[in-house]
Amino acid sequence: MGVQVLKVLFIVLFLFQCKSKKETKEPITVNQEHPVTAQGEATIANLTNSPDSGSAEEPDPADTNTITSREQVPILCYHQIRDWRPRDSKRAKDYIVPVASFKAQMKMLADSGYHTILPDQLYAYLTSGAKLPEKPIMLTFDDTDLDQYTVAKPEMEKYGFKGVFFVMTVSLGRPRYMSKAQIKELSEAGHVIGSHTWDHQNVKKLKGNDWITQIDKPTKQLESITGKEVKYFAYPFGLWNEAAIPELKKRGMVAAFQLSFKRSPEEPLYTIRRIIASGYWSPRTLYTNIIRSF
Ligand SMILES: [Zn+2]
Predict the structure, then answer these.
(1) What's the 40 CA to ligand 1 centre distance in angstroms?
(2) Ion ligand 1 — residues with CB under 5 Å?
(3) Rounded to the nearest whole angstrom, what is the distance from the C-alpha of residue 199 to the centroid of ligand 1?
(4) What CATH architecture does domain 74-174+181-293 belong to?
(5) How far apart are the CA of 200 and the centre of ligand 1, in A?
(6) What percent of the chain is modeled with pLDDT above 70?
(7) Category of 135 on φ-ψ map: left (φ > 0), alpha (ψ -120 to 50) or beta
(8) Distance 132 CA to ligand 1 centre (A)
(9) N or C: which terminus of the chain has fewer CB atoms within 10 Å of its end residue's CB?
(10) Beta strands 232-234; 75-78: pairing state
(11) Domain residue spans in the chain?
């Protein structure tokens, strides 16, 4: 009788312990100094823990369904980084990030534990499940603006960030745009140079020899500047159609970046999503939009 009571008591105690252990597991820590890091942490953290990533034993290249099912890596798209001028239109300010805002955005990313990745890493993750660093993010810069070199590059370097620069070759060396030497310097500093056509044409309208002018020649020129292969493309205006994709494939592009439209289920590698980091956004708004959009 006494033994029975003891047994029951023991079981009850044991169950209670298990329960209380569960409840006290994983205390929620909120970073007071950078409150933006508190929200949505789990979503991004999952990126590195998803069953698809990090498995070394995955020899076959993934099919499109597998690629589409992998958690998207947040990718930001920047254009000009300079202070607003009185003549800048309301709409243009989405594409013009004031210097202080850009600095605050980079600091927020670093403080929040983000690690920049480059297109080869993204490609390996998408096609073969290669492991990514914790809280991966990609920073991309379109249109060859000079301030990407003078402002963004040094600011990114403070945090060890690397970026991807999608160059339209027509503007190389023009006033307010980067020079060939600056492109080469970016490449040698470990940033990646991609193509953004010759003169910013909508690829939906290209036909015949346009592809040579807009893709083949710029690729060759960028390769001769950097001495490295150019394999990544960003669609001008973010616009693409199914017909453009085989043309890009034929011309050596292994992936292409759009803006925030829906990805093609058949061609996820050629419709990788990015969001424009708006000039209006505080670091907190940027953080929220990173979580929401990817
Ligand atoms: Zn552009």
Answers:
(1) 30
(2) 142-143, 236
(3) 9
(4) Alpha-Beta Barrel (3.20)
(5) 6
(6) 80
(7) left
(8) 27
(9) N
(10) unpaired
(11) 74-174+181-293
Ligand 1: distance of its center to the CA of 291 in Å?
Answer: 24
Q: Minimum mean pLDDT among 48-62, 87-101, 208-222: which range? A: 48-62
Residue among 78, 236, 86, 230 nearest 149 (CA): 78
Per-residue pLDDT, averaged over 265-292, amounts to: 97
**Region of residue 98 (left: phi > 0; alpha: psi -120 to 50; beta: else):** beta
Query: What are the pLDDT digits (tens) for 222-269?
Result: 999 999 999 999 999 999 999 999 999 999 999 999 999 999 999 999
Q: How far is the CA of 52 from the centre of ligand 1 (A)?
A: 32
CA of 6 to the centre of ligand 1 (A): 75
